[in-house]
Amino acid sequence: MQQEVFADGVSAVHVTGNLVRIDLMTLQPHLKSEDGQTVVDVSKRIIMPLEGFIQSLAIQENIIQQLIETGVLNKKEEAK
């Protein structure tokens, strides 16, 4: 691995043809908007083929399942 990228979250995902663009955001807590909210900066974009995006979702779902099984995350009950 040559470079690490930090993001507080994903601000948007765009699908165009066979490409998926994922906009990463970082919070700027030292900056406030006019209504007092923390400013968000869209800092990086990941672009990958649709197949790679689907594969990454499967990997993330597997990690989430492992975190639930070890008790790190709690699975929410569906409202009836």
- What portion of the residues fall into strands of 2 or more residues? 35-45%
Distance between the termini: 46 Å
* Helix/strand/pairing category: alpha+beta
The helix content, as a percent range, equals 25-40%
Spatial order of strands in the largest sheet: 1-2-3
Number of helices: 1
Q: How many domain units? A: 1
Q: Extract low-pLDDT stretches.
A: none
Biggest sheet, in brief? 3 strands, antiparallel
In one word, what is the shape? extended
Task: Calculate Rg over CA atoms.
Answer: 16 Å
List the secondary-structure elements in sequence, H or E.
Answer: EEEH
Give the strand tally. 3
Rounded mean pLDDT score: 91
Please describe what this structure looks like.
The structure is a single chain. β2 and β3 (38-49) form a beta hairpin. The chain is an alpha+beta fold and 80 residues long. It contains one helix and three strands; from the N terminus they run βββα. The protein starts with 8 loop residues before the first strand and ends in an 11-residue tail after the last helix. Strands 1-2-3 form a three-stranded antiparallel β-sheet. The radius of gyration is 16 Å and the shape is extended. The chain has one domain (9-69). The chain is 25% helix and 42% strand.
